[in-house]
Amino acid sequence: MSVLEVDIAPASLTSVKAISFDLDDTLWHCAPAIAKADAALFDWFREKTPSIVAVHSPGSLQAYQSTVRQANPDVTRCVTATRMVGLRTLLREFGYAESLAEEAFAVFYRARSEVELYEGALDMLKLLKSRYLLAAITNGNADLGLIGISDYFDVVYAANLQLAPKPEPDMFHRCLTKLDLPASALLHIGDNPVTDVVGGLNASVQTLWFNQYNVDWPEHLPQPHFQAQTLSDIVTLLIR
């Protein structure tokens, strides 16, 4: 669906029964967690596969992963599948068993899920959980159980090889079906103008752009229904 074809329904918080959240860069800053995961993975390579670290640096391994993404477009919709393809390919090239990819990914994944929630995020989830159904809709693969916030969410959807990533509407539609709600009853909150706002609009749900860095809205995109710069702004808007 073209973003220019989106038909934006009027905003109405009175109809909202459920709130869906993007995760990375909406509830926590993603980059530090990925950096920590890359470092943990490199330490694993150093211990388990010395031939790889004899050739690669952390930076060159990141570049290698980017090359894998470009060479395997059929799996790029799922970050876990893309990571696994990269690990298996790398291990095979250096003569190691591809089965080691599972162990390597487990190391990466644990560190990737060691995120630091934004200040006020936990209090916000507690308050909203008392008033609304909550969902997580993400293109990433953070483990909410490891993070310790899974109990706040009624449903969680992450893009995979069968479930298209945002801005496609698939995960939003799946969420609405599971919660047995019309599109007008769901408000999606996220930081990304395309994946979160246009994605939500593609599914005809209401949208809130989390604009914590106070940047200008891209003029070529349809506007979100709401905008907030802080998590406390979100609470003020939704808890009345």
From TrEMBL:
Source domain of life: Bacteria
Magnesium in keyword set? yes
What Gene3D superfamilies does the record point to? 1.20.120.1600, HAD superfamily/HAD-like (3.40.50.1000)
Coiled-coil features, chain-numbered ranges: none
Which one of the record's GO molecular function terms can you name?
hydrolase activity
Output the InterPro entries linked to this UniProt entry.
HAD-like_hydrolase, HAD-like_sf, HAD-SF_hydro_IA, HAD_sf
| A UniProt-annotated Pfam family | Hydrolase
> Is NADP one of the keywords?
no
Q: Which cofactor does it need?
A: Mg(2+)
Enzyme class, UniProt record, top EC level: hydrolase
What keywords is this UniProt entry annotated with?
Hydrolase, Magnesium
Q: Give the GO terms filed under biological process for this record.
A: riboflavin biosynthetic process
Q: What is its EC number?
A: 3.1.3.-
This chain belongs to the protein called 5-amino-6-(5-phospho-D-ribitylamino)uracil phosphatase YigB
Q: Which organism is it from?
A: Granulosicoccus antarcticus IMCC3135
Encoding gene (name): yigB
